[in-house]
Write a structure and sequence with these properties.
Layout (H helix, E strand, L loop, with lengths): L1 H28 L25 E5 L5 H19 L3 E3 L5 H10 L4 E4 L1 H10 L4 E6 L7 E6 L21 E3 L5 H13 L12 E2 L3 H10 L4 E5 H10 L7 E6 L7 E4 L3 H5 L3 H11 L5 H10 L4 E3 L6 H9 L5
Parallel strand pairs: 1-2, 1-3, 6-7, 6-8
Antiparallel strand pairs: 3-10, 4-10, 4-11, 5-8, 5-9
Helix pairs in contact: 2-10, 3-4, 4-11
């Protein structure tokens, strides 16, 4: 009898435990409570809002990828804090790919050269040029030559005639400072691309141009002045092997371009907020000074689409824009 009673007690205990377990599981499945949340409970009273979609930022790959990653990662952190939305830097392989990414909406905000900025804006109605560096309103290219080429520095554009018969490399095919404007100045001076020894090269970026001319792979090349000066200050150029032979007249170049549909995602006035955040970068603040130095700028200043009208005209003349 005792054994049977113990068995019944044990069976009742197990059933009670199972019933309690089922209740606990049911309550958990319904959100942790069948009524109002208890005081001190960690359970939310409502579903959290959906995550904000990151603002995608990109740039033309005009320099070494490692330097670009460092530059734009720091800028993305700054913009995220200023704008209150997540900001991501998205590396892109070449100049044309940045324009395409901007056109299809994979990039919301992009750092373009003069030519690529015009190309991008022509493909996205309502896109705006909003900021440029303080140096971009009067930007220059520099023609460089291997010291064994026999080319001496000159001050007048007519000196470009000395490049005839020499091997020559541009930077990227879509670079304003490494191709578009230099080709314009060459043509204005009476130098056709067919006047070089062999087909002109396209190095891909400004750092590569320096190295190719320094090594003697090409006798002459052209790149943006800011990169040349930066590498010179870093001691990264062997000036016994390569030198500047001509500095071009000034022109508008690099600038930030933003898509208009960011306002639908982040609210009315967002374009103005992005512009204000870029213009706010202050060299007196160490963290912000570091960003400006990576861009080779003292500050960012306002710009507009109209500033690049001459770039568009020249691009149409040489066939870079149809």
């Amino acid at each position: 009898m005792t054994t049977r009673l113990q068995s019944l007690v044990l069976r009742r205990t197990v059933l009670t435990g199972l019933a309690s377990l089922w209740v606990t599981l049911a309550v958990a499945a319904c959100g942790g409570s069948t009524g109002e949340p208890q005081a001190g409970s960690d359970a939310p009273s409502a579903a959290p809002p959906s995550a904000v979609e990151p603002l995608q930022v990109g740039a033309i790959p005009d320099q070494d990828p490692e330097k670009l990653q460092r530059t734009y990662s720091q800028l993305a952190d700054y913009l995220s804090a200023e704008l209150g939305v997540p900001v991501e830097y998205r590396p892109v392989t070449d100049y044309a790919a940045v324009v395409t990414a901007f056109r299809v909406g994979d990039l919301d905000l992009a750092w373009f050269g003069g030519l690529t900025g015009v190309q991008a804006r022509l493909q996205v109605e309502g896109a705006q040029a909003i900021a440029q560096r303080d140096i971009d309103a009067e930007f220059h290219s520099v023609f460089i030559a291997n010291t064994a080429s026999g080319i001496e520095p000159f001050t007048e554009a007519s000196g470009l005639l000395a490049l005839k018969g020499k091997s020559f490399t541009f930077g990227s095919e879509s670079s304003t400072s490494g191709r578009l404007m230099p080709q314009y100045f060459l043509q204005e001076s009476g130098v056709a691309l067919s006047d070089f020894r062999g087909e002109p090269g396209f190095s891909g970026n400004h750092d590569a141009t320096i190295k190719l001319v320094e090594a003697g792979t090409y006798e002459v090349g052209v790149l943006n002045e800011q990169v040349w000066m930066s590498r010179l200050a870093e001691g990264a150029i062997d000036t016994t092997k390569v030198q500047v032979v001509w500095r071009t007249p000034a022109y508008f170049d690099y600038h930030w371009v933003i898509r208009p549909d960011v306002e639908a995602r982040y609210g009315e006035g967002f374009v103005d907020r992005v512009q204000a955040a870029l213009l706010k970068l202050d060299p007196a603040v160490p963290e912000q000074q570091a960003i400006l130095e990576l861009f080779g700028a003292g500050s960012f200043i306002e710009t507009t689409n109209a500033n690049y009208a001459d770039i568009e005209t020249i691009a149409r003349e040489i066939g870079k824009i149809q």
